[in-house]
Amino acid sequence: VTFFDTAEAYGPHEAERILGESIASFRDKVVITSKFGWNIDLETGERKPGLNSRPEHIKVAVEGMLKRLRTDRIDLLYQHRVDPAVPIEDVAGAVKDLMAQGKILHWGLCEMGQKTLRRAHAEQRLTAIQNEYSMLWRGPESWVLPTCEELGIGFVPWSPLGMGFLTGTMNADTRFVQGDLRAIIPRFAPENLPHNLALVALLRHWAERKNAAPAQIALAWLMAQKPWIVPIPGTTQMPHLIENLGAAAVRFTPSELAELNKAASSIPIVGARLPDSVLVFSEVEAPPKS
Which of 4, 10, 158, 228 is catalytic? Predict the structure, then answer.
């Protein structure tokens, strides 16, 4: 494993500190990413309402990231969500300054609007886009993936296992404890979950065919879509990490992939991918540069 994804918002700040400590002895052998954009107090880490991508805030935020990550550069820095109050050209300008100082090597966007993606790329070449994408949520296929292919931008799917759904560990009776985001996600609601389990049944079928785990089929399917797609499955357990890594050995012939795509596309997913209060931050367009 040589690619580690984190963000100032995770913790906040704690995930960066843990990662920095963990990789300190082999920093030069791995690629690390982080993200800015939420309105987080740069000193205390307190999460405040809304977003903040003002250039001066970005630059100070990156200084904090470098200290917590114990490094002199961030390989890939994302804007976590588009700030509707800051032109993307101003954001790109701040990133460009940080690149000139060697503190940032590459940059990308997450869950942005279509016009904002193109404006950002025109100002400072984007290396990667990070959006939710999996067999459970295929929204990026409408315009994000075609745009990435057109512009030569890599794609990093977050939640490639559908928040654990595609591992096959859930059933119609699964419920989530208070504080678990999945407890308020419509596609996991009691009235929707049984319908969506048809997708898990498909994964189990293919897992038997390929002598693999359902999670490995889901990840292999993602990587088979395009060679420039790099999923980032998260886990807290070593056996799950080892299982996820095994997805790299799963291969589909062109006919198998076509068969799996057709079968997956025929299964309607019931319920939104996120609560409305979270979805409101996706596909936002940055204001025009005055």
Answer: 10
